[in-house]
Amino acid sequence: LTGAQDGSVRMFEWTRPQQLVCFQQAGNARVTRMYFNAQGNKCGVADGEGFLSIWQVNQTTSNPKPYLSWQCHSKTTSDFAFITSSSLVATSGQSNDNRNVCLWDTLVSSSNSLIHAFTCHDHGATVLQYVPKHQLLISGGRKGYICIFDIRQRQILFTFQAHESAVKALALDPSEDYFVTGSAE
């Protein structure tokens, strides 16, 4: 998958020089993050206007529409993670009310899909990492803070400042015992 400033997402296959399909989001907001789910049959795209859209990958139409699209954050959706079999999604971004990390249920109507919103990260959350073994979410913020959330209990477990500037990257080791942060500095 490749994402562009105009909101378009193109899907390629390793052995083919041309794109397989172009997914176009509503509006022209820049793509901030995109992932395949674990099964590889769906892709999600977050954008600079706060939306998250999810498509079925196996579409053959020339102009496919997302099967889900909703505004997760009032300003921007910077990152997201598929939880479980992609029916649960976590997002990070920036919202006017500081609910900058959220859990969503994709199986219910968009008006009822918000499961829980965490009030955290002044000025927004920039990155998100799901830790399946421990059922945790780790988020990084614009001010260098890291928050660790327990998904089952729906509470913040730890908050600490890891950097002086925005956290730009989070990585989890394969055994899920350690995580690494990277910052704008």
UniProtKB/TrEMBL annotation:
UniProt-listed Pfam families: WD40 (PF00400)
WD repeats (start-end): 160-185
One GO CC term on file: RAVE complex
Gene3D superfamilies reported for this sequence: YVTN repeat-like/Quinoprotein amine dehydrogenase (2.130.10.10)
Any GO BP annotation: vacuolar acidification
InterPro entries, per database record: DmX-like/RAVE_component (IPR052208), WD40/YVTN_repeat-like_dom_sf (IPR015943), WD40_repeat_dom_sf (IPR036322), WD40_rpt (IPR001680)
Record SUPFAM superfamilies: WD40 repeat-like
Alphabetically ordered keywords of this record: WD repeat
Name listed for the protein in its UniProt record: DMXL2 protein
Species the sequence originates in: Urocynchramus pylzowi
Lineage of origin: Eukaryota, Metazoa, Chordata, Craniata, Vertebrata
Gene name of the record: Dmxl2
